[in-house]
Amino acid sequence: MAPISLTVNGEHRTAETGTTGTDLFEGDRAVVAQRVNGELRDLYRELGDGDVVEGVLISEPDGLDILRHSTAHVLAQAVQAEFPEAKLGIGPPITDGFYYDFDVAEPFTPEDLKKLSKTMQRIIKEGQTFVRREVADADALTELAAEPYKCELVGLKGGAAEDAAEGASAEVGGSELTIYDNVRRDGTVAWGDLCRGPHLPSTKLIGNGFALTRSAAAYWRGSEKNPQLQRVYGTAWPTKDELKAYQERLAEAERRDHRKLGAQLDLFSFPEEVGPGLPVFHPRGAILRKEMEDYVYQRHLEEGFSYVTTPHLSKEELFHTSGHLPYYAEGMMPELDDDGQAYRVKAMNCPMHNLIFRSQQRSYRELPLRYFEFGTVYRNEKSGVLQGLTRVRMITQDDSHSYVAKEQAAGEVKHLLDFVLSLLRDFGLDDYYLELSTRDEDGDKKDKFIGTDEQWAEATAVLREVAEESGLELVPDPGGAAYYGPKISVQARDAIGRTWQMSTIQYDFNQPERFELEYQASDGSRQRPVMIHSAKFGSIERFIGVLTEHYAGAFPVWLSPVQVLGVPVAEEFLPYLEEVTAKMRALGVRTEVDASDDRFGKKIRNASTSKVPFVLIVGGDDRDAGAVSFRYRDGSQENGIPVDEAIDRVVEAIATRAQV
């Protein structure tokens, strides 16, 4: 047989005809698949002359997806072994894990998940191989006749899959229809599933680095009109140690859950009587929110913005003009009828800012013209995606719009990005990267974006140039743009390494045209401005949720709803303590005194739970010396601090935004 020429991990090699990835990477257990000419394939597939081949490591993102999708197959095999009547839905890899949907008679219980884990372990130990075979649509429909959900997916090959159902591209996303059989060592087929692949060479590579985490209800293809299935979630990692580390991260995230801390610290709640996704802020939470609003209000003024306010609802025609109803109707609340006049609760502030710009003639001398407001908007989020403050229906944005000449656009984007990053640093978020969201260039989704190719190219080039000049990591997000233009978003990492989308900067060439916005240029001609949207917090509600988890409720002293909590050792020291805290309150320090009948030890424990930055303790020695004792959140304590010095410490910590 004639030899073939290959490029393997960047090096030229000669191999025999019939060579597979298994041959090339024999002995390297870390390689679980091959990337051939950019396409992911199973290791055992043959290579051709001229192929460029890379080994895919189990530890890299593609390798982890393959591990997790293979584990999802093992889960499905275990479910049908334990529950033979179960019908298969979709089982894709997701961030840090996988899920698989099943149509079963009864919801899965925790005991069921334990039983399924044991069955999965048995399958894994058998060392079954994942064997790919191509099938024609008609043959697949015949073979899968007992699997109605799989049959529904058969006609969705290619680009239609992901639009039809979340995760469907993992099943039928390629140009060919394939089934993967799980084959035992004796050659018998244990089980099979419609799947795009690729998969691990053997179930043994899953090892003991997996766990089933929970089950939940999920509608088939995400529609409430379809049957409700049972979704089993799991996670899988290359080693048991990595699994344990992930579980520890989850436990830490659970301890930081802003929904629990919000109740514990009495910050906010979600009363059923108000409705899902509509938070109410209690006095302490409102203080935190007001501190944020005061900060960002002043910062906007310093950065050259003018403050405006606009109504919460408008005639429906306004949102037709802006393009939101034609392109974003599903995200807006239903119309309100006022004697035949349709109104809409606003889902965005920009259309009304455009009316302010248009209210009088504008000159190039006014540009950049910058407006901002604390505008509360309302989004018709489905109840299933709501999550505490980080996904709500009521969104209060520090929303700004800059109107600039085209030649000013890059400078304004840089100005806004610098503003955003300085704000994040002031709030203790200093680990971040940028994401550039662009339109889909082809496929069905292209029609969801408006504007010419030239407009998109120009807008995208401006954002990319500014992002690259920042020196920050820049990650592409194709298809993630708003319908009216591309955007930069700042992705911030919190104290335990999780990434949150925070601030956004969007380039809009669409609305100035729709609203016929103009300014008089220096040559006397009428020109169309460019509109740049920016929300520094993103939304105040979401930002509070992220900060609560970032700080685990122990906010910096300048943000803390209660900055000083006074605790007397005994009731007789209460008058002296109240004199000290009164002096602090006169200087704007937020203080409380625990005058309850609880014992001193319990008061200290309560103070620790409340996460107040400064606990002021007063006993006999303190009173006699005109001093106080400080107890900090880490449990350390300083005694005998003169009152004036103690006040100065607190005031300075607030003024300098110290991370106490």
UniProtKB/TrEMBL annotation:
Compartments where found: Cytoplasm
Question: tRNA-binding as a keyword?
Answer: yes
Cross-referenced Gene3D superfamilies, in alphabetical order?
A: 3.30.54.20, Anticodon-binding domain (3.40.50.800), Bira Bifunctional Protein, Domain 2 (3.30.930.10), Threonyl-trna Synthetase, Chain A, domain 2 (3.30.980.10)
Which is a GO BP term held by this UniProt record?
A: threonyl-tRNA aminoacylation
- List the EC numbers from the record: 6.1.1.3
- Please list the cofactors this protein needs: Zn(2+)
Q: What PROSITE patterns has UniProt attached to this entry? A: AA_TRNA_LIGASE_II, TGS
Reaction catalysis annotation: tRNA(Thr) + L-threonine + ATP = L-threonyl-tRNA(Thr) + AMP + diphosphate + H(+)
Q: What class of enzyme is it?
A: ligase
Q: Describe the location of the TGS domain by residue ranges.
A: 1-57
Its main localization is cytoplasm
Q: Start and end of every Aminoacyl-transfer RNA synthetases class-II family profile domain?
A: 257-556
Bilayer-crossing regions: none
Q: Which Pfam families match?
A: HGTP_anticodon (PF03129), tRNA-synt_2b (PF00587), tRNA_SAD (PF07973)
Cofactor notes:
Binds 1 zinc ion per subunit.
Q: What is this protein called?
A: Threonine--tRNA ligase
Q: Which organism is it from?
A: Kytococcus aerolatus
